[in-house]
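Researcher: Next entry in the queue.
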Amino acid sequence: MANATMKSAIALSESERAELVSIARSRSLPAALALRARIVLACTTSDAPVLGVARELGIHRGTVTKWRDRYAQYRLAGLYDELRSGRPRTVDDERVAQLIATTLHSKPTDGGTHWSTRALEASTGISKSTVQRYLRAFNLKPHRVETFKLSTDPFFIEKLRDVVGLYLNPPDNALVLCVDEKSQCQALQRTQPMLPLGLGYVEGVTHDYVRHGTTTLFAALNVMSGQVLAQCRPRHRHQEFLAFLRSIDKAVPAELDVHCIVDNYASHKHPKVRAWLAERPRWHMHFVPTYSSWLNQVERFFSVITTRAIRRGSFNSVKDLTEKIDRFVQTYNQSSKPFVWTATADSILEKLARLCGRINGTGH
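Model: Structure for this entry, 364 residues:
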């Protein structure tokens, strides 16, 4: 009877057929569900043998019979697996609550700063794999830590609104520049040649190096275009900062005002710098709040150049380092795009309010 035809063809409405075709062709639904839909579609003709459908789909004929009959009785709902009871839980709710409370409200007794899965296993008696499963279920990550720093600037809100306002609504006939310096750019030369990237392994560098010296990278990021004016200087005193401001002043057309966003480093507020700015009314300095360097967009450029040109490089001298930095900046400016700032001052203040609420809840 292996070649017997279907007892009766499954009659499908147009909507049912369309839904089954959609499931059968889906790449996001479970593969088993798509296969069951194809089985039903293949069984819609009365002369289709069970064995023929099984051979066509590469499955057992009993599978064809099972899902054909399930669909005939329950329609689309019959294609889904029924709930199974599974093995009984070995960890009850009280022990789970104890695990979560231990993770959140205590420290390891061995003097450690945070819990590991093995330490929780020893403390609660719950197996390591079960501890991992419950930590994942409750989205607890005791092995990770995030850093933060709240500004103590008494004029934090005023400065925040001032800087964010320049990003979101820059003034007319003016240039908005984010200016800062990246000090201690080290010219490190690896003691052995680097191993090149290959199939199956990453680029290799030695952990030791020869230190040839350092340089300071001064950079001014144009908020509107994303282009960068950069210079490398041996030190980062007020003299170097003032010289960099003079080079910016020469590069910016005389008819444009200059709105300069800087941090609170001492050289930026030196009396000689203030005197130079006082003689040039087109210059407007905007200081970000203390401990808020993340407000200065040039920090994003520093991250890019560190990752792509400095950190993994090998330089035989400070001159070699500065030449490669200059080459990177020139190439970067040829295809530069501005960093898109979307956060409003109010949204930032709301986020800080939530952070303060979390800190207050710790009791510290």
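Model: The longest helix spans residues 318-334.
Researcher: Noted, moving on.
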